[in-house]
Specification:
By secondary structure, the chain is mainly alpha-helical. The protein is about 65% helix and about 0% strand.
C-alpha cells in the first residue's frame, strides 16, 4: 500500500528518470551546463564561445571612445623615440621645402618684372628719352620704394599677413624696377647685357655653394652688419671726392663682394636645417625680399664696375 519515499513512483513505470530526484542547477531537458565566465550564446552568433580579445586591447580604450591614444591603442606613444624623431624631421623637411619653393617662385616673379623694365628702358629709345626729361619720377619711385621697404622690414604683421604682404611687395617691386630702369638707361646696352650675364652666373654659383657648403654663414650676421656700415661710410666720403675711376672701382668691388656674401647668408637662413640660425616659414615674403635685394645690389655694383672700367 505504501511506496518507498526515496523513489518516484514512475521508477517502476518509466515516467521519471531512473536516477531519482533531478540534480539542482541542471535544466530539465538535459542540456550541458553553460560555460563559466561567458553568457549564453545569443541569436546570430556562431556556436561556441566568443572570440578571444585582440592583443593590445585594453578595457576602457577603444577606437573613437574615451581611450583613443591611451595605453592599448597603437598610437604615437608606442612608436619609440627614434620613430617620433624621424616623423618630426620628415614634417619639418616637408614644410621647409615648400617654403623654399614659395620663396623662389616669388623671387623669380620679382626678377622677371625688374629685368622687363630694364630691357624696356635700355632698348626702347622713346622711353629712355622720356625718363631723362622727367627726372622727378625717379625721386617719387625712390620714396615709394623706401617707405615700402621700411614698413615690411619693421612691421612683422604686414609682411606675414596676406594679401597685405603681397600688396606691399608688389608696390616695392614696381618702384624698384622703375629705379633700375632709370639707372640702366644711362649705360650702353651691351654693358647692361654683360652685367646681367655676370650677375646670373655669380648668383647661380653662390646659391649652389650655399646649399652644398658645410660652412655656416648664418653666424656672421654681426660681421656683415659692420661691413655694411663701413661700406656706407666709404660711399658717403666718396661723394665728396672728385670723380675718380679708381675709387669707383674699389667701392663697387667691395660692394659686390659684400652682397655676394649676403646672398650666401640669406640663402642659408632660408634653408635652415644644419645651420645655426634659420628664418621662419611664415616669413616667405621677407626671405624673397632679402634675396631680391642681394641680387639687385650685385647687379648694380657689377654694372658700375663695367662702366668705370670703360671710362
Amino acid at each position: 500500500m505504501f511506496q518507498n519515499p526515496g523513489v518516484y513512483p514512475g521508477d517502476q513505470q518509466g515516467g521519471y528518470p531512473q536516477a531519482g530526484y533531478p540534480q539542482p542547477g541542471y535544466p530539465q531537458a538535459g542540456y550541458p551546463p553553460p560555460q563559466a565566465g561567458y553568457p549564453a550564446p545569443q541569436a546570430g552568433y556562431p556556436p561556441g564561445s566568443y572570440p578571444p580579445p585582440q592583443p593590445g586591447f585594453q578595457p576602457g580604450g577603444g577606437y573613437g571612445g574615451a581611450g583613443y591614444g591611451e595605453a592599448g591603442y597603437g598610437g604615437p606613444g608606442t612608436l619609440g623615440d627614434d620613430a617620433d624623431v624621424k616623423g618630426f624631421d620628415f614634417n619639418e623637411q616637408t614644410i621647409r621645402k615648400s617654403f623654399i619653393r614659395k620663396v623662389y617662385s616669388i623671387l623669380m616673379c620679382q626678377l622677371l618684372v625688374t629685368f622687363s623694365f630694364v630691357a624696356l628702358f635700355t632698348f626702347h629709345e622713346p622711353t629712355k628719352l622720356w625718363v631723362q626729361r622727367n627726372t622727378y619720377l625717379f625721386w617719387i619711385a625712390f620714396v615709394v620704394m623706401f617707405v615700402c621697404l621700411i614698413v615690411m622690414a619693421c612691421c612683422g604683421d604686414v609682411r606675414r599677413r596676406a594679401p597685405t604682404n603681397f600688396i606691399f611687395l608688389g608696390i616695392f617691386t614696381l618702384a624698384e624696377s622703375f629705379l633700375m630702369g632709370v639707372v640702366t638707361s644711362m649705360y650702353q646696352s651691351d654693358a647692361v647685357l654683360m652685367a646681367v650675364g655676370i650677375t646670373a652666373a655669380i648668383c647661380l654659383t653662390l646659391t649652389l655653394f650655399a646649399m652644398q657648403s658645410k660652412w655656416d654663414f648664418t653666424a656672421m650676421g654681426g660681421i656683415l652688419l659692420c661691413c655694411t656700415v663701413v661700406l656706407l661710410l666709404f660711399g658717403i666720403i666718396a661723394m665728396f671726392i672728385p670723380k675718380n675711376n679708381v675709387v669707383t672701382l674699389v667701392y663697387a668691388s667691395l660692394g659686390a663682394l659684400l652682397f655676394s656674401v649676403y646672398l650666401v647668408y640669406d640663402t642659408q637662413l632660408m634653408m635652415g636645417g644644419k645651420h645655426k640660425y634659420s628664418i621662419s616659414p611664415e616669413e616667405y615674403v621677407f626671405a624673397a625680399l632679402n634675396l631680391y635685394l642681394d641680387i639687385i645690389n650685385i647687379f648694380m655694383y657689377i654694372l658700375t664696375i663695367i662702366g668705370a672700367a670703360r671710362d
